[in-house]
UniProtKB/TrEMBL annotation:
Domain of life the protein comes from: Bacteria
Organism: Thermaurantimonas aggregans
Protein name: Outer membrane lipoprotein BamD-like domain-containing protein
Pfam family, any one: TPR_6
Keyword Signal: yes
Length: 193
């Protein structure tokens, strides 16, 4: 009988703990819905300004997405918003480092999840294309391939690893070699027809 009482008390404590920890209140859900509605409204306004992109709206959207991420850090929607915020930072001059910070939050907070692979892949693109730091890009893509081998971006990262040279000036040489390769002449002439 005494074992049953202890077991019952332990179960009640476990249930109380699980219900009390991490559960969202209806107020939290309302706050989340309000923030999401604000984000969607700003996003719609921003999309109407494309391709020029109203940078003031982009900054406002980044701030709202960061606010959501801080309020609901473990929500996977936070990961999506931070990845979008990173992309939005790329619309602004000299904000690549801010974009990388957003991505770092995603791939540390959501390690082991698909969003982390997405963040690592995009970080590699920023390092390679925007910052001209191919060594860093290679590190990011190698991590995607090693840690997320079944993710769809792993194949793309693997392909990028094969063609990315640690010396960005060699890219021009690679293009010239490709253009001068006789095998590619037939492809080029077919495209010009």
């Amino acid at each position: 009988m005494m074992k049953r009482v202890y077991w019952l008390i332990a179960m009640l404590m476990l249930i109380a703990w699980s219900c009390g920890s991490g559960s969202e209140t209806s107020e939290d859900k309302n706050d989340a819905k309000e923030l999401i509605a604000e984000i969607e409204a700003i996003e719609n306004k921003l999309l109407k300004t494309m391709p020029e992109a109203d940078t003031a709206l982009a900054v406002q959207l980044i701030e709202k997405m960061q606010e959501y991420s801080q309020a609901f850090p473990q929500d996977t929607l936070s990961a999506q918003f931070l990845i979008k915020a990173a992309n939005l930072y790329l619309l602004l001059p000299d904000r690549e480092i801010d974009a990388l910070r957003q991505l770092q939050i995603v791939y540390t907070r959501f390690a082991g999840q698909p969003y982390a692979a997405q963040a690592l892949f995009l970080a590699g693109m920023i390092y390679d294309n925007n910052l001209r730091q191919p060594q860093q890009a290679i590190r990011m893509w190698e991590q995607v391939v090693a840690d997320y081998p079944t993710h769809p971006l792993a194949a793309q990262a693997s392909s990028l690893l094969k063609i990315t040279d640690t010396d960005p000036y060699n890219d021009l040489e690679m293009i010239e070699r490709w253009l001068n390769d006789p095998k590619n002449k037939s492809i080029q002439s077919a495209e010009n027809k």
